[in-house]
Design a protein that fits this description.
Elements (H helix, E strand, L loop, with lengths): L8 H9 L3 H23 L2 H18 L9 H19 L9 H7 L11 H19 L3 H12 L4 H8 L3 H30 L1
Length: 198
């Protein structure tokens, strides 16, 4: 196989089950950043996100023989991580400081911007991004999880249903409700911003 051709997840899983630990390292490398960034948004703490991501990969390695291949590997991995994130929040463990809006922005990757935006446009763009992240942090676990998985991670309704162990209809209704709640939070944040500038 050419070095330029990426190895499919299924091939790597098969190799790991056959005893190739390096193959699991490739899976970790492939998904660790994406999983970590999702967990930061869900848990609100880089320390907690790092802990849960590490635990999720350990559990995935231990349980890999139970992976039937009915879904994609990363969907299965995310399901493990989401279960751990919920357990983590229920235990109330929050070791590190909450992620600042700037840190969340940094961990989330580059945001799309105009090629030559003026200073006002850049400032407004940053303020909007920060407002969305602040509103997201105020949502309950169920709403935040479902919005992050759909709007930020781009998972399909079917994949979200599998990750969160719920029917697709429930995913759709909760997502609809989550969007309404987020919209109300954003209205409140922007209203507060306007009031402060008066």
């Amino acid at each position: 196989m050419s070095d330029d051709v990426p190895i499919e997840d299924a091939q790597l899983v098969k190799a790991v089950i056959g005893g190739d630990r390096d193959a699991f390292g490739m899976l970790v490398e492939r998904y660790q950043d994406r999983l970590f960034n999702t967990l930061v948004r869900i848990l609100g703490s880089r320390d907690d996100a790092g802990d849960v991501a590490q635990e999720a990969f350990v559990q995935a390695f231990v349980k890999l023989k139970t992976f039937r291949g009915d879904s994609q590997f990363y969907t299965w991995l995310y399901r493990i991580a989401m279960n751990m994130a919920l357990s983590h929040r229920r235990r109330g463990r929050r070791r590190g400081p909450s992620v600042s809006l700037e840190a969340a922005k940094d961990s989330g990757g580059d945001e799309p911007v105009d090629q030559n935006p003026g200073p006002d446009a850049r400032l407004m763009g940053r303020e909007r991004i920060e407002a969305v992240r602040l509103a997201l942090s105020k949502l309950g676990d169920q709403h935040r999880q479902i919005l992050v998985l759909r709007e930020m991670e781009g998972f399909s309704y079917d994949a979200i249903a599998e990750i969160l162990h719920m029917p697709v209809g429930t995913v759709r209704s909760r997502l609809f409700r989550a969007r309404l709640v987020l919209k109300e939070e954003l209205k409140t944040i922007f209203r507060d911003e306007v009031d402060r500038t008066k």
